[in-house]
Each structure stands twice: as C-alpha cells, then as structure tokens.
Amino acid sequence: MKLAEVVETSRQIAETRSRLEKTRLLSQLLAKAPSSELPIVVSYLSGRLPQGRIGIGHQTLGAMRALLGVTAPALNLRDVHDAFSELGELSGAGSSARRTELLRNLLGRATEVERDFLVRLLLEDLRQGSLEGVMVEALATASSLNVESVRRAFMLSGDLAIVAKTARAEGEAGLANIAIELFRPVRSMLASTAEDIADALRTLEVAALEYKIDGARIQVHKSKDRVRVYSRRLNDVTDACPEIVETIGSLPSRRLVLDGEAVALRADGRPHTFQTTMRRFGRRLDVAGLRRALPLTSFYFDCLLLDEEILVDERYENRVARLHEALPGELIVPRIVTAKDEEAQSFSEKALVAGHEGVMAKALHAPYQAGSRGKAWLKVKSAHTLDLVVLAAEWGSGRRRGWLSNLHLGARDPETGGFVMLGKTFKGMTDEILKWQTERLQELEISRDEWTVRVRPELVAEIAFNDIQKSPHYEGGLALRFARLKAYREDKRVEEADTIDTVRALYEKQTGERLAPAQAQLSLFGDE
Ligand code: AMP
Questions:
Q1: pTM to 2 decimal places
Q2: 212 catalytic residue (yes or no)
Q3: Is the CB of 189 under 6 A from ligand 1?
Q4: Measuring CA to CA, how many Å separate 270 from each of 131, 212, 215, 398?
C-alpha cells in the first residue's frame, strides 16, 4: 500500500466533523489494506508509531520542514515502516548523524503533504478526533463484526493492532478468544461526572456509593507469588510500590486481578494531596526513602479475576461480592448501597469529613467496560473541576521571570480532534510546580515566540473554577471564571480530558440557558 493513501484518508478524516463519515473513511481504508500492513495503518491512523517513540524531536524535524521533496507520491508504507524501525534501533557513537541522514533521505522522497503527515506522526501531533473510539467502530465495519466484540477485545488486549489482525484473520470467534490474561493490564473503566448526589441517584436509582479516593489508580495482578502493579495508563509501576506487592502477595487467593486506588495517608489517617501521593510514582525514585516518608495504603473497588473465575462480564454487585471473599475489609474502599437521598448525602459528608474528594456512584448491574461510555460510574466531587489540556504557556514576569507561568487551557473537541481554548491561568502553582512545568513544557515544545511556548497537547491539568461564562475572546464562546491549577494529571491521557460538550452542558445546567448548536457558535466566532 502507498503511504499517500493513508495520508489522504488522514486528511479527509481531519476535515469532516461527522463521526459517521470518519468511521466510513477509515473502514474503507482498513478494508483495502493488505493483512501484513493492516497493523501499520491502524497504528498510523491512531496517531502513533508501531515502534512507539523513536526519539526524534521537534528540533531535528524543524530543520527538515523546508526540505525539497518530490512532486509525485512514490513512498510505500512498508518502506516508511522499515525506515522508522531502523531509526528506532540506532544508538551509540555516530548515531545522531546517521539518524539525520536517514530521516533526510526518507523525507526527501516524500511529497509535501506526506512529509507534513510524517512529521506530525513523529511528533504525535496528528489531530483527527477521538481516534481510538472511531478506530474501534471502523474495525467493526471493515470486517462486518459486532462493535461490542471489537471494543471488548480492545479493552482486554489494550492493542488495536492485535485486534485488527485478529478480526481480519479469525473474525468474531477470534475476538471472543481474546481473554483477560494475567500480567497484561486491562484498559480501565472510567467515570462520567454527576452534578451532585441527587443527580447521581436520579440517574442510577439504586446505587453503590464508594469513597472517591484522590490517589493513583492501580491494577494489581497476582499469580501465586508473582505480583505486578499497573498504573491507569497501564505502565508497570511495580518497583515503585513494594508495600502493595507485599499486601497482595500475602493474600491466600492464588490468582487475582484487582482494580483500586493507592494513596499516601498522613499520620492522622487523612489523605495527602494527589500531588504528594504521585511523588511515589515519579521519574527518578528513591523508593526506600519515599516509602519511609510517604507509605502507600491501597483500597480496592473491583475484582476482574479470582482464581479460576473470570469476572469481567459479571454484574458489578457480583464482582464486589467476590472482592469481599478475596480481601479483608480494610483493603476495600468504604461503601454502601442505597436508593435514599438522605442516606447518600450523609455517606458523602462522611467521605468529605475524612478528607476524601467526594464519592463514586455505581450502577449495580453494569459489566466492567473500559472508558467512560455510558453512566455506570459517576463521580461526584465537592468542587467544580475540569480536566483540560495545556496548549501553550507564557513566560512569567517579576518574581516568576524565567519560569513558564500562564497556562493556555483547552477542552477536547471530539469531532475535530482539536482543542477549544477556555482560558488561561497562572494561579494555584507552588515554586516546585513552576519549576516542574517549565522543564516539562519545554520537553513538549512545538514552537515559540518571545512570550509564549506552544506545546504538544499531551499534558492534562485538573483545573478548579468558580463558574463558566460567555466570552467573545475564545472560539468556543465560553470561558472559565477564576480558573486555578488543582493538580497535573500525568496519569491521564489526553483522550480522557473533558470535552467542549461537557463544558457546554455544565454551562447550560449552571445557567438554565440553552446554547446555540456548536456549528453556529464556531462560525459566529470566525473559526475556519
Ligand atoms: P478522576 O480522576 O477525577 O476523573 O476520577 C476517576 C478516578 O477516581 C478513577 O480513575 C480512580 O483512579 C479514582 N477513584 C477513587 N476512588 C474510586 C472508587 N471508589 N471507584 C472508582 N474509581 C475511584
């Protein structure tokens, strides 16, 4: 297959706002791809290289943007893939010169649009709109398979390329054979937001309410005496948390997959801030020292496998019943089941008094499903917060000179894959955070001028605010009032950040006013 076909589809996908049309375009291309190249197509159109990051940054690429390319497209997908593999394997003396030479050679054989695509692919800057979700639907259409089977296979394998290959070669039966496997983490189930307790109970009627603990999501796998711990992003973080390995290792069950939250508690039993707990999972770790200063406590709320039983498709109440069989009470998150408003309110107050963030409300009947589709899990927090993406940052002045300070924040636009700016903030930052963000944001730099550094949209920040108001300054027509940084959420992927639709819905709930449809809004503010 020619690279040009992939590039053209990518362009068409980026141009349409219609999810249905995106799915149609993608599935057409997938159906055409030869089996051996299907995983590459899936990966490129999900905005990632099959090789993962191969260490080519914007500085190397910046110098190549002006290269003279060819006018007629000739590159094969396979050649590009091989070149990236070779680039990824380079190391040692002379590798940097060789890297530049290889890249120059590859991009020199590309047309201008191909080069633009490849550069953005390398920078993970291809914005085409809710890629994973659309890809799941397109895979189902391309192989005439049930979308739920594809989604489930993706949840369990965590790898769209494997799902695509299996769907093509073995159909529905092959997908059904993709099962939960110990030591291959399952994509996490996530929550939607409820306004308050009453709102959550209206939606669910009878609900399990659990403390919402503001720590780090953990998925723990155990087989006999082997225990591994995975983060929300499915990275193996076992070495960072030996106490969790000890706790789960000492349980009598032979095989376990548990979902839970790890948190550093203070001497009085109240939780440290999220930022403090996350120090346990930082980059350069003195594990023994940190363990002494900030010991982790783990609370579990779900069980996906217990000994010989696979529980993923079981109702939540059955999974929790198994959790109680496998774990002592102190390892299970405090919970009640109720349909009564007063009971729910007083449980929520207890959670807040104990220093927790709020509660989770869960539907009793729901199976375990990755992502936050539907309303099976609802989070109820005491403060208004949104998870937004940092798009750029301005250099500070005065005491903050030399530090990146004022953050530009955007909500996801799931239809275009772009971001809608909602405001800026320089509030809520300690010196430690300023120092950290200055370093981190420059690693993500795409370009800069005298005042501002524009960054790859990869960093999610949890932003507290007072309310949402109309604003002529921003393309979405809305802005946050009194926005301040609550915490960086490096545990979240950009795909999990809040969307402009959520912000619009919040505004409507808050004011009782109906907003004009998004399309009209965009043209009103002159967006192209
Ligand atoms: P948020 O990170 O604010 O979007 O809230 C969702 C996260 O809350 C989940 O990913 C978990 O890490 C965390 N969490 C804390 N307590 C619970 C609970 N009882 N059930 C599910 N998730 C929880």
A1: 0.85
A2: yes
A3: no
A4: 39, 13, 12, 37
